[in-house]
Amino acid sequence: MFTDELVGNGMGQVINGPFRDWFVPRMNGMLRRNIGRRASLVRPWIADQIMYSQNISSHNQIVTVGGNRVSIEGEHNGVHVWVGEVMMDILSAPQDGVFWLHHTYVDYLWERFRQKLVRLGRNPEIDYPDPTNGQHPGHNGSDPMPIFYSQYHYIWTNQRGYSNLLLNFYEYADHPTCGNGCGGNTKFLYCPNNNTNNASTRCVSRTAERDTVPEEALGQFGGRNLSEFDFKNGTATSSINNTNSLGEMAAALEGPLSKSAWQFTSKLKDNRLN
């Protein structure tokens, strides 16, 4: 993913791909990343529980308040930290194009969760989480959405954001699996271990044939030493079936997950084959 063909390099200043040489006003500098240093990507087993488990049938069960282990917000936060640099700052994060791709996926998870509620006989429009009990202004159902406050504060509350009316504006395709031919994109994705017998198996990304860290971007890794990475054979990522990913290499430096799943500790792993 972090190559010039997709979102650009993942270490140092982003100098290739569609978001190359973007200036970030808040940082007063260029767009930078530091992938795999901390936290984790969205964990497949958490995503599956949110989308499919009948034991998780209310928004109250997927919010961080209350100590829920399965949290869509926690999984969201971890990716911000995993990408690093600009994505770690809540005000500057939207100035990395990865932000919008990531949030689209989070919204996809939520939409699949909402569809599950309908199948279970619940109305997602009124299933607003209520553990805040008025203690967190801005997060309660009756609180106005800040971006719409000036003109529509009597209409666009958080609760209104759950309206099925918004479904008229979008429709999501299923995520790439072995059963749907990796969503028709076999240039960048493949079915792991030729596991075509299990239609629900997630497709994973193909190995990059060149560095995810262009030579021109080397030198500044936010304090990281190049010796931490394996650049054998001219690639910064190797087959996930045989060698560690960048994220797994960084796991040796990882303590408790930062901002993601704060209720427990875990080493950073990229379990894309699960």
From TrEMBL:
InterPro entries: Di-copper_centre_dom_sf, Tyrosinase/Hemocyanin, Tyrosinase_Cu-bd
Gene3D superfamilies the record matches: Di-copper center containing domain from catechol oxidase (1.10.1280.10)
PANTHER family, per the entry: TYROSINASE FAMILY MEMBER, TYROSINASE-LIKE PROTEIN TYR-1-RELATED
Keywords, ordered alphabetically: Copper, Metal-binding
Highest taxon in the source lineage: Eukaryota
Residue ranges of coiled coil: none
Name of the protein in its database record: Tyrosinase copper-binding domain-containing protein
Ranges for domain Tyrosinase copper-binding: 48-115
GO molecular function, one term: metal ion binding
